[in-house]
Amino acid sequence: MVLTKKGDLVEEERELLTNVSQGNVEEVERLLKLKNVRINCLDEHGMSPLMHAAYKGRANVCEVLLKHAADVNVNEHEHGYTTLMFAGLSGNKKITRMMLDAGAKTDMVNSVGRTAAQMAAFVGQHECVTIINNYFPRERLEYYTHPQGLETEPKLPPELADQLHRILLATNLNPVKLVQLVQADSALQDPSALTRCVRVLNSVSEHGMKEAEPCETLAIRSHYLGCILNRCCLHLQEKGSLTTLIKGFLKGREGDGFPLMQERFIRDAIKRFPRPEAGLLQQLVRTIAPIEMGHEPTALSVLTQAVTGQVGMLDAEVCATCGEYGALCRCSACKRVVYCGTSCQKLHWFTHKLLCASLNAERLREQEHNLHKNAGLEAVEKKEDVGKTVIIDPVDEPNAVKEESDGKTKENQENQNTRESTGSDTLAGTRAEEISQKVVDGFG
Ligand SMILES: [Zn+2]
Ligand SMILES: [Zn+2]
Predict the structure, then answer these.
(1) Which residues form a coiled coil (predicted)?
(2) 237 and 296 housed in the same domain
(3) Whether the predicted model's global pTM rises above the 0.85 cut
């Protein structure tokens, strides 16, 4: 391969870099066909086209460049930044995964000794940090797709490797989300396929503990995923579908809606980790054991933080159903729970409807209290800010989302919320009445 020199670019290569940055996929494809355009050409700072695309968050362009065999580990940047570092800095999860899939090395450091994960953490891109730290290369599953030793058949049928890899890359350990992942995959709706995946996960877990430098996070994470898949397998054998398992994980206990079965399942899965000497396991047990069921932190949050390194994002809303970050839909009746969308809201409604009215009453009481306590501007600021999220109405399962009965459009509603959050007391009063009406409607 001809070594490319920094800044030594022909006209078309400069054109390529411009189009890469602007995200003009078609132009990029056209230019890459030209003989004098080199896929790994470098600009004055030692940045390749792929680095530019990653930094600018141009996922489509990254795809095209990788298809043309762009080198993901070019390391000529003036400050030692790698393509993966640029992906992490951009905060684009898809691109970060794409670079890892293309073989990006995670342990390379830049001129100030930072890895890609550390760079991403430095600029607050925590989701990218989690993706990098929890990456499991697809090749490591290849081993299981060939018979080893005396085996007559491989542990993992090759056609299940992609499915299992997707599960292994999951960074959201919420049991509901994981069961949903299984449910969404037709190849995994078969108990015997799940049994084989569980066996591989247990083996990955065992290997994690046997390595020269035991990787306890990988060991515990794959053991936990194995527990989830095993539970799915048993449930499928018994009920033929996973819907009731998901509902079981969501069902809140009487009084406070705490999902007891979910908590018990996670605590039990942790306890069943077969290597009691593991330091991380002991730390987990020590943290969780004294916590009473229903108190914070939950076993899920302790486990997530310990094995994925994910730190709670203070300003991020978490879906009450599946635990995904960035949930933007708020229950219109109580405004106390958020969801990723109506499908998650519908799933949760069977249990949330038992609490929705009392949550709303509590919210209104707090609002009232704040109004009395703090006069003027301060009171307005203290009111719950609901302007940022889309409001969705409670749904009566199993029907679709309730239609707006009074013909009010979402836009109107959003305007109203904005007015409320910046707004006048009289408006807030009207809104409260509307909400109580909606709670009534919601119960149908
Ligand atoms: Zn969700
Ligand atoms: Zn509600």
Answers:
(1) none
(2) yes
(3) no
